[in-house]
Fold:
Amino acid sequence: MRDPKALPFDHCPLRPIAGTALAQAVPAPANAIFFSRSDAGILANVVLLGEYVAQLVVDQTGRPAPTIAWLTDPARPNSDPRTTYPELACGVAAETLTA
Structure:
Protein backbone atom coordinates (compact mmCIF):
# COMPACT_ATOMS: atom_id res chain seq x y z
CA MET A 1 0.00 0.00 0.00
CA ARG A 2 2.92 2.34 0.57
CA ASP A 3 5.23 1.15 -2.21
CA PRO A 4 3.85 2.05 -5.66
CA LYS A 5 5.90 -0.75 -7.25
CA ALA A 6 4.55 -3.50 -4.98
CA LEU A 7 1.31 -5.38 -5.34
CA PRO A 8 -1.23 -4.67 -2.57
CA PHE A 9 -1.22 -8.39 -1.71
CA ASP A 10 2.45 -8.06 -0.71
CA HIS A 11 1.58 -5.63 2.07
CA CYS A 12 -1.63 -7.08 3.39
CA PRO A 13 -2.05 -10.74 2.43
CA LEU A 14 -5.34 -12.56 2.96
CA ARG A 15 -5.12 -15.69 5.05
CA PRO A 16 -7.84 -18.30 5.61
CA ILE A 17 -9.20 -18.49 9.17
CA ALA A 18 -10.65 -22.01 8.99
CA GLY A 19 -9.70 -24.02 12.07
CA THR A 20 -8.75 -20.99 14.20
CA ALA A 21 -10.52 -19.38 17.15
CA LEU A 22 -11.29 -16.48 14.85
CA ALA A 23 -13.45 -18.72 12.65
CA GLN A 24 -15.76 -19.32 15.61
CA ALA A 25 -15.77 -15.67 16.68
CA VAL A 26 -16.71 -14.46 13.18
CA PRO A 27 -18.92 -17.11 11.58
CA ALA A 28 -19.48 -16.96 7.83
CA PRO A 29 -20.80 -14.81 6.20
CA ALA A 30 -20.05 -12.14 8.85
CA ASN A 31 -17.42 -9.42 8.52
CA ALA A 32 -15.40 -7.94 11.37
CA ILE A 33 -12.80 -5.32 12.16
CA PHE A 34 -10.84 -5.35 15.41
CA PHE A 35 -7.42 -4.51 16.79
CA SER A 36 -4.78 -6.76 18.32
CA ARG A 37 -1.20 -6.52 19.47
CA SER A 38 1.84 -8.20 17.93
CA ASP A 39 5.61 -7.73 18.10
CA ALA A 40 5.26 -5.33 15.15
CA GLY A 41 2.72 -3.11 16.96
CA ILE A 42 -1.05 -2.73 16.87
CA LEU A 43 -2.70 -4.60 14.03
CA ALA A 44 -5.99 -3.77 12.35
CA ASN A 45 -7.60 -7.13 11.55
CA VAL A 46 -10.27 -7.28 8.86
CA VAL A 47 -12.24 -10.51 8.51
CA LEU A 48 -13.98 -10.92 5.18
CA LEU A 49 -17.15 -13.02 5.00
CA GLY A 50 -15.98 -15.22 7.86
CA GLU A 51 -13.42 -16.82 5.55
CA TYR A 52 -10.26 -14.70 5.35
CA VAL A 53 -8.39 -12.18 7.45
CA ALA A 54 -6.12 -9.32 6.42
CA GLN A 55 -3.84 -7.72 9.01
CA LEU A 56 -2.11 -4.37 8.77
CA VAL A 57 0.15 -2.63 11.30
CA VAL A 58 -1.50 0.68 12.20
CA ASP A 59 0.50 1.84 15.24
CA GLN A 60 4.01 1.17 16.53
CA THR A 61 4.09 3.48 19.56
CA GLY A 62 3.63 0.72 22.15
CA ARG A 63 0.20 1.86 23.28
CA PRO A 64 -2.44 -0.75 24.14
CA ALA A 65 -4.70 -2.00 21.36
CA PRO A 66 -8.16 -0.38 21.26
CA THR A 67 -10.85 -2.55 22.84
CA ILE A 68 -13.59 -1.93 20.33
CA ALA A 69 -14.58 -4.12 17.43
CA TRP A 70 -17.15 -4.12 14.68
CA LEU A 71 -19.00 -7.27 13.66
CA THR A 72 -21.51 -7.15 10.82
CA ASP A 73 -24.02 -9.83 9.98
CA PRO A 74 -25.51 -9.67 6.46
CA ALA A 75 -28.62 -11.41 7.81
CA ARG A 76 -29.19 -8.39 10.12
CA PRO A 77 -28.12 -5.37 8.05
CA ASN A 78 -29.72 -2.82 10.41
CA SER A 79 -28.08 -4.08 13.61
CA ASP A 80 -25.43 -2.04 15.43
CA PRO A 81 -22.01 -3.43 14.37
CA ARG A 82 -20.11 -2.13 17.40
CA THR A 83 -19.17 -4.80 19.88
CA THR A 84 -16.98 -5.45 22.86
CA TYR A 85 -17.18 -9.17 22.18
CA PRO A 86 -14.08 -10.32 24.09
CA GLU A 87 -12.75 -12.66 21.42
CA LEU A 88 -12.62 -9.72 19.01
CA ALA A 89 -12.16 -6.55 21.02
CA CYS A 90 -9.36 -7.94 23.17
CA GLY A 91 -7.64 -9.68 20.29
CA VAL A 92 -7.89 -13.13 21.88
CA ALA A 93 -8.90 -14.78 18.61
CA ALA A 94 -6.10 -13.01 16.79
CA GLU A 95 -3.46 -14.69 18.95
CA THR A 96 -3.71 -17.77 16.74
CA LEU A 97 -2.98 -15.58 13.72
CA THR A 98 0.01 -13.65 15.07
CA ALA A 99 1.85 -16.57 16.66
The chain is about 15% helix and 35% strand. The chain has one domain: 13-98.
